[in-house]
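Sat 14:20. Reprocessing the chain from the morning session after the first attempt stalled halfway. Input below, unchanged.
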Amino acid sequence: MTLMSTTTPMSRPKPAAEKPSTPTAEKLEESKAERAMRRRHLRGRLDFKYSPYLYISPFFILFALVGLFPLIYTFVVSINDWDLLGGAGDWVGLDNYKAELASPLFWNSLFNTFSIFLLSAIPQLVVATFIASMLDQNIRAKTFWRMSVLVPYVVTPVAVTLIFSTAFDEKYGLINNLLGALNLDAIAWKTEVFPSHMAIATMVNWRWTGYNALILLAAMQAVPRELHESAAIDGAGAIRRFFSITLPSIRPTMIFVIITATIGGLQIFTEPKLFNPSSSVPGGARSAIPNHRALPVGPGLQPRRLRPRLGRGLDPVPDHHRHWRDQLLDLRHHRLVIGAEETPPSGQPRRQTCQESLR
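Finished this time. Tokens:
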């Protein structure tokens, strides 16, 4: 008989708890390297995402300080009855804008601005393109001519205005002297509207044409010469190559020049202001046909017409001298000079002359 021994299953011995291993120097170095790598990766991501905004932020900060804030502040001033000394007054809304739009001086000055802009911008771009195309050719002393066209841009606007104001003087100016030498009538450059606009546009064109020509020249030099050579082999002439290859290739630069010329033409202020600074009035010339202002009619006096107003708001005599000028013109017109006698109207006593009154 076989005895079967019953054995109870022996329980597995529990593993002894592992003692925490003390970090070695190598593991510490590895963990530090991993943390440093993660930080570098994070800094790289932040630098890639936000550094472009940091680089362009100086422009926006400067624009906000000197551009955006003045615009907002000016708008706030415009909707209030603002006093230069007392500050903000009553809120008036858009009344200031309504008054400005209803003023004939505003529309007249707007007409003067656009007239000078058109007379300066269009010829300026045409001449600048022509000069750039000439400088792009294989001519002698190219560097000299390219630097020469930039000389007018170096001269300050005040000096340019003084030079051209003297040249376009109505009595002793160089332009009218040349016209007189050719037996032609002198032109009222500072009295008529259109001639004054032409004189001011001439100043603007003389100063800015060379600058725009150099910009267009740089764009023309970037056009591949192979295109011109291929077109020349196919029989295209110089004019055809200019209009079919050069102008389409420099279209982005031409758009840039047109935009900058438009902004500069509409912001023009120095040249008209200094063209005849001693006789400027608000609003400029009233119309294309100069107006004549009649003197007040007194007893026994007939109205007398004065000389016309100047273009771009230039009047021959300042406001504070105009009263005395009118009096002198009255005296000359009615012969009320020293020693002259005036026949009084019937039924009225004889008036003393200036000589008698001085006695």
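The CA atoms of residues 179 and 186 lie 6 Å apart.
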